[in-house]
Amino acid sequence: MMLKKKKKSNVVYGLLALFFSLLLFFNANGSNFQNSIASSETFDETAHDVPITIDYDSDEYYIQGYEKTADVTLSGANRVQLNAEANEETRNFEVVADLTDLEEGTHDVPLEIENLSNSVDASAEPDTLTVTIEKKETKNFQIDTQDLEDKLQDGFELDNLAVSPQEVEVTSGEETMKDISRVVVSSDLETINENISDSFPLQAVDENGESLSASLSPQNVDLNMEVSAPDKEVSLEPSQTGEAAEGVTDYDFQLSENSATITGAQNLLDDVDSLEVPIDVTDITEPTTRNIDVQAPSQLTSNIDSVTVNITPVFEDSTTEESNGDESAPDNQAPASEENNEENENAEVEDTTTETTDSSQIEENSPEEETTTQESQEQTQTEDSQEQQDSADEQIDSQENEEETER
Questions:
Q1: CB neighbour list of residue 163: distance below 8 Å, 6 or more residues apart
Q2: What is the pTM of this model?
Q3: What is the pLDDT of residues 195-223, one digit of tens each?
Q4: First CA to last CA across the chain, in angstroms?
Q5: Topology (CATH level 3) of domain 231-318
Q6: Which of 56, 273, 297, 324 could cross-link 99 (Cys pair, CB 3.0–4.6 Å)?
């Protein structure tokens, strides 16, 4: 009995052992299968603008006409490694062109990728480098500034032009050096109408102004250029814009400056007599002060950038009162005018009568009588003048007496 139970227990244990063995077997094979699938998957990354390292004798030769960078495509199963190689800061590989065994002339050189892990594949685009090799030559050139002077706007004058340094060292190939005509300041300035103080790159050019391959030392130059131009004084004219507020008939503008000096080419100055100062009066119902920008026409400059404007609204009621006051003034003055007219007419009649009497007397008198008459008239005039003077003195004395009495 005991023997049968023992045999049954052994069978059960055997079955359990077989079950766990099979379980472990399939589990291990499944992991290996998954790892096999994972290891067969590849990833791609592209490193853009990788600098090309060129091996050559830089003391003896000068090279030109080649691409400076290449794009490199990387392939591998390890994504982390690919990302590291694609990153400029963490990559280990480099793209190399070997010219050490080449002579002068133009060559197509294959690009090689070095220092890359064996588990990563790589290809470069382009995969060859076209390069020209020349014997090296070095010369000194004075910096030519004629191009800058030619860019002066019409009407402007060059007061001062200075570059520092004035001389530059140029290194290039022997054949290229023969074509270098001058070294100029490279700038994108089309016209110069203001002072310049800045640093600019230098460029070696041929007689036609075309850029040539060369190494310059220094590569930049400090430029100080002072120019002047004709100027003209023009008036500042306020110009009302916007809608006037309700009840406002007009606005009074007082500018802090009434004129400005504009500078530029003479032909442009001739067309300008004033600068407009636009003033927006929208919603202004009380005295207001604003700062308004002053804009000069294109290619002209103004010595005033802005002006302060005092804006005073004129209302309809005040305008009506002023009009009424002006109309009443002539009515009040009418009687006085009529009296003056009557006095003038009477005086004219008296003058006419006197002239007629005098002329008739002159015609009737003989020469002796005329002389006597003239003396008499002169005496009469003297007496009349004396009487007028006495009368005036009496009036003055009378006024003084009245003033003393009032005191």
A1: 143, 145, 185, 221, 222, 223, 224
A2: 0.52
A3: 999 999 999 999 999 999 999 999 999 99
A4: 169
A5: RNA Polymerase Alpha Subunit; Chain A, domain 2 (2.170.120)
A6: 56
